[in-house]
Amino acid sequence: MAAKNRFPRNVTCKTAHGLAYAVYGSQYKHKQAGNLRLTDIARTINTQDWELAKDIVSTLNAFMASKDLELLEDHFVRFQSNRTLTSVQQQYMSKALNLTKDVWDKMVDIKDRSVSMTHDGYLKLYQMSQPDLSQRFGAILLDEGQDVNPVIANLVQIQTITQVTVGDRHQQLYR
């Protein structure tokens, strides 16, 4: 991390994932992966319906990037632009959400190797735990603040210590 060498010794430089890894990620070393694989999800839910597996992965990714503490219909990406759903679409979404919850439960189960733990997964667990960083730090400096996703933004916003966000709103990745 380049920033570490640019600050005095009384400054601790960490990424959000680095903070989360120390608490949760290290527990999942034996089942970590960079991304969820469609084949693993399809095998876990015992299906050859690749669209369903894809919907589960995209729903889980949307949940892990969100500030929400529970999986919601809002995380189901496929129908987000639809204002009203047909009964068939509603049933499909309900089924997909239930399966996504099952996959999430397997992901966070340390003993269950059927679903890998991703970096965004342990970051989500950390955010959901609502950590109090005031026990370790006097302030937070969030660099590239325009590029943080909602889960990281929430992790910072819930803190009671001084927060400084640095960034360029004209270079925003997440809108």
Automatic annotation (TrEMBL):
Q: What is this protein called?
A: Uncharacterized protein
- InterPro entries associated with the record: DNA_helicase_UvrD/REP (IPR000212), P-loop_NTPase (IPR027417)
Checking PANTHER family in the record gives: F-BOX DNA HELICASE 1, UVRD / RECB / PCRA DNA HELICASE FAMILY MEMBER
Gene3D superfamilies in UniProt: P-loop containing nucleotide triphosphate hydrolases
Q: What's a single GO MF annotation on this record?
A: 3'-5' DNA helicase activity
Annotated GO biological processes are: double-strand break repair via homologous recombination; replication fork processing
